[in-house]
Amino acid sequence: MLNYKHLAPFLLLLFIGFPVYSQNKTIDSLETILANPKISDTTRINTIIAGMDNTIMLSKAHVAYFNQLPPVFTKGLAMPKLHPKVKRKYQFAAGVYYYNTAKKETSEGNKNAPMHFDEAIKYWKESKDYKPMALAIVGKGAYYRHIADWPNTFKYFFEALKFYESINNESGISTVNMEIGTACIAQQDWNKAIVHLKKALPYYDVPESELRKSDRHSLAVIHNNIGTSYTRLKNFTEAHNSFLKAYYYIKKNKDPQAESIILVQLAQSSSELGKLAESEDYLKRALDLCNDDISKQGVYGSAARINYKNKNYDKAAEYGELSYSLAKKNKNINSQSGITSLLYKIYKESGQYEKALKMHEANIVIKDSTNLEASKNELAQQELKYQFEKKELQQKIIQQKKVTAVELEAQKKMALETSKNTLARQQLVYDFEKKQLNQKLAQEKNVAAIKLSSEKKTAAIKLSSEKKTAVKNNWLIAVSSVFLLSLLGAYFYYRNNKQKQAITVLEKNQIKQKLLITQMNPHFIFNSIQNIRSLINNRQNDEAVNYLGKFSKLTRQILENSNQNYISLAEEVEMLENYLAIQQLLYENKFNFNIRIEESIDTESIFLPPMLAQPYIENAIKHGLSNTTENGKIDIHYYLKEEKLYFEVTDNGKGFGTDEKVSNHKSLAMTITKERLVSYTKNKDFIVQTNNVIASDGSIEGAKVAFEVPYIYES
What we know:
By secondary structure, the chain is α+β, with helices and mostly antiparallel strands. It has a domain at about 25-205: Serine Threonine Protein Phosphatase 5, Tetratricopeptide repeat, CATH 1.25.40. The protein has helices at about 25-35, 40-55, 60-65, 70-75, 85-110, 115-125, 130-145, 150-165, 170-185, 190-200, 215-230, 235-255, 255-270, 275-290, 295-310, 315-330, 335-350, 355-370, 370-420, 420-535, 540-560, 570-585, 615-625, 660, 670-680; strands at about 565-570, 590-595, 605-610, 630-640, 645-650, 690-695, 700-710, 710-715. The chain is flat and about 120 Å long. Mean pLDDT is about 80; it is low at about 1-25 and about 660-665.
């Protein structure tokens, strides 16, 4: 499968369709015109731009033409008192030069590209050539996409999209949505990529006979990238259909490089659908069409993935290394990330662990440099901002239309009223209002006199009442304040005591757990040292050295874990394996052991208190197998039941006797471990199950100890 995070070589090249001389003119005829020293600057500019349009974008001839523009527009813009139309022509030419320079620098990875895009935007804005200005903004976003600067990528793409939508330019809307979709693919946001790429399709919804070669190329790019996104979403049927559409359009264009890339996609989707013969045919056709490093790198990557899926690891590694070498040569970070991840899997599954580790480390370094999550968040923020501003603009337009309509209606009414006999109408209104005003003044004098007398009496009564009320209120406020302060004081006193009690209980529990682990470690170390001493006394020097080496490793594990409340199940199992290996050496291999972990358990994600199982394993060896001289068995089993983790140790020894069950089997280590289990589970009735293993004839053929292990899960 091709690494879909880099499809820049397959992106449609963007260019401006300038108003120029007839496209039928040949390069030679244009050179003849430019050779005439008497032609005007306007003619020279038009001829240079025409020459650019008659050459392949960013070819040597194309670059040679746009490099002729600076002397012309520099001289022109330096002239004083230019006519506005002439000045616009020079500004337009400056924009053309800086835009093409920036496009060339983008393809070369030159850091000056953004600065020259800004120059193009400035000149085209001054000359009021807004469509090419928007295209320069798109180009700036494409540069930042090329260097994986996602915040700036989406910032400039959405700025261009808002402009194109404001003028309802379908071509521009399609182009920007296609660019945004491609950026989403680069940052692995497949669903968003499909949404934006499909938004780019309506512009091409015309009869096929009206499609130009560039239109077919764009359709192939869009359908190819949609297929890429469906592939990453594991929807291989939709992906295959999209690649077939892309191949249909690109085949008509007779473009071997693009055709090769889409054949690679078809090979991968056929493989995923189980059509292996069809996949091999597509891949062979793609390899036959390769004529450059970028195409080869993609095909090699796909061949590696298909061979990996079919477990042909030698071929997969060969093609993968070829693809990785070309990706490094092309300095394509995204491609390197994908192919190193694949090579890690290939080498790991084929047993080449050193090479697998090398690829894993390379992949980590590459991934750390891309900051994909930040880019996704930036895309979401830009989209929210874009949607908000779009909605706000629409509301303003609607509001403006309503205000305009109301103003127009008011103007019509005003004009109608003015046309009547305004003077007569105003005279009647004046007489009526004058009479009404005189009556109102007389009434107001009488009312004012009555009101003044009433207000004086009311004010006196109100003042007396307010004085009495103020005294009562002051007493009430004082009593309430004292009561409220008492309540607050009591509440804070109670809460402070509760917090102190909780902290005391927590500290006691933590001290108790640390103390229990501290008690256990010296006990275990003492037993192990006694074993070493016994070997030395018996002059078993080689065994003693071997035992001491394993014991030192185990001691280091215990010291590292003793201060940890929880360790992973993987670490616990590794410690038990080391411990049992030591015991095997001590007991002269009179027993074998087996540690089984249920397949559904992820040992790296489950964390449990350290050294819970060791005392019970020690007891099974020392007491359970005490009468056994050979063929002893210790079977350890971790399993999940109803989302609870259980530990179980079984031996094939003499089993539990009545007396031993009461005394001997209750060792200090097991007692401490039982206390730890009670502390972790907060269950005083915690049970460690001890049972004899009964054979079919009723005899005892061993003993089994089991208990629930407290654990936490971290994904």
